[in-house]
Design a protein that fits this description.
The chain is built from 15 helices and no strands. The chain is mainly α and 307 residues long.
């Protein structure tokens, strides 16, 4: 009889514990660390394999570009310009600063020095004062005055439309040259800036670190006709969502295609707070953006000193 009573007590003790254990299993995922981990794993996009074939890489790369084209149908160069001369000068000034800061500075520069002849004959101290907000203003003054003189002396005051001529101008490298060729002359080129380098390496389009090698590797994945707009799509995405320090992975439209998913914030609500420019409700970088950008809800940036 005592043994039966003990067994009953034992059973009475075990049942609540078992019930408690069972209850834990039914707790909603948000209340259970194990369930949370399982949920995150389930939502995390699959990573392309390390041994991804060349064909698979090309397909994934081109799909990424198509997806970005839908997200940024209004992608454009984010430097304000009205002619090739303004674009080459603005691109040189954009080194080590933002396009926004350049766009806020160049109206004053071009109002006073509208042509290569004017800027070539400018007083360096006056130009330095105008360019001071862009940083490294002495070196930049030397470059823009120097390239203006070269345009006057070697190209009759006209910006050349060939890569081999552009790279001879003071302060102009391949990146600047391709910006000018692609956006002022309609000639395809890949702009390998810091955003472009970061994203194509995250996407495993290349493992190269040298701009020339990156340009070659990425260029081989796409038809030449797509190079200029590809550059805009990638750079737009890098500035708005796939940031250097904390990418907004949870708000990224190409997350399922990205091998680097998870390097940044994966929670959708937290990721939305990291979005910049029009995606986050803030003005873009141009004072005078294309109409398509405005039609899509984008807002022009404020002039220097505003607000």
């Amino acid at each position: 009889m005592k043994k039966a009573t003990a067994a009953a007590k034992s059973t009475a003790i075990v049942k609540p514990a078992a019930a408690k254990k069972a209850a834990v299993k039914k707790v909603p995922p948000s209340k259970s660390k194990r369930a949370e981990a399982t949920a995150v794993t389930a939502l995390k996009p699959p990573k392309p394999p390390r041994d991804e074939s060349r064909t698979a890489l090309v397909r994934r790369a081109r799909r990424i570009n198509r997806e970005l084209a839908e997200v940024y149908p209004y992608a454009h160069p984010e430097l304000d310009f009205e002619n090739p001369f303004q674009l080459v000068v603005a691109t040189v000034l954009s080194a080590q600063t933002t396009d926004l800061r350049v766009n806020q500075t160049t109206p004053g520069l071009f109002a006073k020095y509208p042509t290569p002849e004017d800027l070539a004959a400018a007083d360096p101290e006056d130009v330095e004062e105008i360019l001071r907000p862009t940083g490294f203003f002495r070196a930049k003054t030397k470059s823009v005055i120097g390239l203006s003189k070269a345009l006057v002396e070697q190209f009759d005051g006209e910006v050349p439309g060939r890569l081999e001529d552009l790279v001879k101008l003071p302060g102009v490298g391949r990146k600047t040259a391709f910006v000018v060729l692609g956006n002022a002359f309609g000639r395809p080129g890949i702009t390998v800036d810091t955003h472009f380098q970061r994203l194509v390496r995250r996407w495993r389009w290349t493992e190269a670190t040298e701009p020339d090698k990156i340009e070659a590797d990425v260029g081989a994945l796409f038809p030449k006709s797509e190079w200029t707009m590809l550059s805009h799509h990638v750079i737009f995405h890098g500035r708005r969502i796939c940031h250097a320090r904390k990418p907004a992975c949870g708000a990224c439209p190409i997350a399922p295609l990205c091998p680097a998913y998870g390097e940044g914030e994966t929670d959708p609500e937290k990721a939305k707070k990291l979005l910049k420019y029009e995606k986050g409700g803030f003005p873009g970088q141009r004072l005078n953006p294309p109409q398509a950008y405005l039609d899509a809800g984008g807002r022009p940036a404020p002039p220097l000193g505003a607000g």
